[in-house]
Automatic annotation (TrEMBL):
Domain (Phosphagen kinase N-terminal): residue spans on this chain: 11-98
Keyword line: ATP-binding, Kinase, Nucleotide-binding, Transferase
The protein's name in its UniProt record: creatine kinase
Organism: Tetraodon nigroviridis
Binding site for ATP: R132, G133, T134, G135, G136, V137
Length: 193
């Protein structure tokens, strides 16, 4: 098992009341959702790789949060975590993402022509606009082994990949300079493939 949870076997010798963490001063979604009854129901469960409820909640127990900033307070150790601990994670995800339900699907539209707004920003108040994207490697495991290889980057040398980053940064710097002068950057926009 990737997760060595002998500590969980020791904890099971104690009652759930003895092991239930004091979350009374915590400000995170996990602390808001986790009750002693829920803790008792889930504490003996684990994913096939050995991830336990205590592993899920440990970060939220260790980090009570800030009174004005609500954090998540839990983590998923593997894909199965979402199914094994859904009684905890579904309400946490719903709270964190404004009612997002397990049946909801994220709508993806990567067509830049469908973007709305942003062209009417008052330059007296907006210094710059930043676009950020996040994502991860698909966690589909084969026989319990996750593919964290560079398969998606095969065909490019390390030098070529670094050059792509350098060229991209140079393009952004050139765009920023033009925008600072009030000039158009339309001719610098890369063609979509």
């Amino acid at each position: 098992m990737p997760f060595g949870n002998t500590h969980n076997q020791l904890k099971m010798k104690f009652s759930s009341e003895q092991e239930y963490p004091d979350l009374s001063k915590h400000n995170n979604h996990m602390a808001k959702v986790l009750t002693s009854d829920l803790y008792e129901r889930l504490r003996s469960k684990q994913t096939p790789s050995g991830f336990t409820l205590d592993d899920v909640i440990q970060t939220g127990v260790d980090n009570p949060g800030h009174p004005f900033i609500m954090t998540v307070g839990c983590v998923a150790g593997d894909e199965e975590t979402y199914e094994v601990f859904k009684e905890l994670l579904d309400p946490v995800i719903s709270d964190r993402h404004g009612g997002y339900k397990p049946t909801d699907k994220h709508k993806t539209d990567l067509d830049a022509a469908n973007l709305k707004g942003g062209d009417d920003l008052d330059p007296n108040y907006v210094l710059r606009l930043q676009t950020r994207g996040t994502g991860g490697v698909d966690t589909a495991a084969v026989g319990g082994v996750f593919d964290i290889s560079n398969a998606d980057r095969l065909g490019f040398s390390e030098v070529e990949l670094v050059q792509m980053v350098v060229d991209g940064v140079k393009l952004l710097v050139d765009m920023e300079k033009r925008l600072e002068k009030g000039e158009s950057i339309d001719d610098l926009m890369p063609q979509q493939k």
